[in-house]
Specification:
The protein has a single domain, classed as 3-Layer(aba) Sandwich (Rossmann fold). β2 and β3 form a beta hairpin. It is built from 5 helices and 3 strands. The longest helix is centred in the first third of the chain and has 16 residues. With 152 residues, it is mostly helical. The termini are far apart. Strands 1-3-2 form a 3-stranded mixed beta sheet, with no helix packed on it.
Length: 152
């Protein structure tokens, strides 16, 4: 498994978690330095990122899509070990360890969705967790049937 190439707080946290899992976990694995051949890579992507991406997709693209905890790209399995950890919790860990806080997303739609979610926390403190949970608890019986495909 490859360690993240970035040097930000999220990457340092992922590297720390993977080293602990390697030392104390039940399934043995080898950590590779970035650039080495590997079949699995750990990347950043936290609960806040997942909620922002979901909301941005709904508001800007009119579709429901989510940031997956795992996916495969070009034969490499991509995992997101921080998938269920909020950005604020990562920032608190980073501050405690003398690291810079994680950067907000650069993509404008995700950034705007994040600002909206933060603004709504005053009304609903668990807003990010609720958006995240909603994607994982979809009741397909409440969705209308898909329109027929064009015969073109």
């Amino acid at each position: 498994m490859a360690l993240p190439e970035e040097t930000g707080a999220e990457s340092v946290l992922i590297a720390t978690l993977l080293r602990q899992l390697q030392a104390h976990g039940r399934i043995p694995f080898r950590l590779a330095r970035p650039g080495e051949a590997y079949d699995c890579a750990a990347v950043t992507g936290c609960l806040s990122d997942a909620a922002e991406r979901t909301l941005a997709g709904m508001l800007y693209a009119g579709r429901l899509e989510a940031l997956p905890p795992m996916e495969t790209r070009n034969g490499t399995r991509i995992i997101r070990p921080l998938y269920r950890i909020a950005r604020e919790d990562i920032a608190a860990w980073a501050a405690f360890n003398g690291l810079d806080a994680p950067e907000p997303p650069e993509e404008p739609h995700a950034r705007a969705a994040g600002e909206l979610l933060r603004a709504m926390r005053g009304v609903c403190p668990d807003i990010e967790k609720n958006v995240f949970a909603a994607v994982h608890q979809i009741d397909m019986d409440t969705f209308p049937a898909a329109p027929p495909a064009d015969a073109d």
